[in-house]
Design brief:
It contains 11 helices and 10 strands. With about 325 residues, it is of the alpha/beta class. The protein has one domain: Aldolase class I (TIM Barrel). Helix 2 packs across helix 3. It binds flavin mononucleotide (FMN).
Amino acid sequence: MNPQHAVLFQPLPIRTHELRNRLVCPPMVTCRDVVGPEGLKWYRTIAAGGVGCVIVEAMRVHLFGTDFTAANMRGLADAITTEGALPVVQLFLAQTEGLAEPADFSLADLDRVVEQFVTAARVCEEAGFAGVEPHGAHGFLLNRFFSPVANSRTDDYGGQALEGRMKLGLRIVSTLRERLSDETLLFYRHTPRLGEDYPLDDSLQFARRLQAAGLDVLDLSPAGIDEPAELAAPFASELTIPVIAVNNMCQHDRAVTALEQGRADLVAIGRGLIADPEWPRKTQAGRLDEILFCTECDEACFGNLRRGEPIGCVLHD
Ligand SMILES: Cc1cc2nc3c(=O)[nH]c(=O)nc-3n(C[C@H](O)[C@H](O)[C@H](O)COP(=O)(O)O)c2cc1C
């Protein structure tokens, strides 16, 4: 291994778990039946490539207990665990009929949403997953509760004040912490700065409160556009829990800089793993010339996602 890359392969203990290295597969919708043979094959291949943690793609919380059960998700958890990676599931609050914006939810609807997260997380726990990650990023519904532009509620769960905008995310995390096993890890994906909607400082305050509510890992996306992990740096320096940074981390120098400079504790590689799931193993073995590097053409990953077709990569499909 190139000695500069050793920082990527330091193990990281979290609660009773240990990540074998600092590399994470971020959640990516595969447009496959995630609990069927194609989904299992996909996730097993990613885990076998050597990452420390695999965050399974956004799964809709309201489908747990019916479409997704401990029985039909156990194979997915096993496929990832068998290959030595920590399995985590991203939980997604989807728009359902009539409930598309924060203002559409009655207080009873919000109680139901929190219970859906608990049900989903318990299914994941029972299936053998090490943790769950509410998806509070990228301008999707849960993230919209945090945005003073999108959240037009005037009650405790909204308004311009940060306290109201944080409330649903905090309630989900604190309820999960109370009602899950102590061993289950709680991740949360958040967008540190959403366009002009809210500043980084709002997110820092939110992150402090998430940590106090029992969060184990903060997953920031996007975490750096020009510089590696520049948006994650203030979080990593202030929080005591690990912070994940994502965005073009398949460029080794960006991943190394993010970790070496303490801008993040973990780096997630998305499209880079679609291009070459063996990026971690090849890096560890010093076989850099064998890595298929993502060229950010976005043709078969984001392109297929938009078309609703199984994602892949033009480098090998
Ligand atoms: C095909 C595809 C599907 C994605 N699906 C999700 C998702 O389910 N949840 C999520 O939070 N982000 C999703 N993302 C974003 C990635 O997790 C990641 O943040 C993004 O690709 C940037 O990382 P990269 O530069 O390493 O690709 C997706 C990205 C791609 C390419």
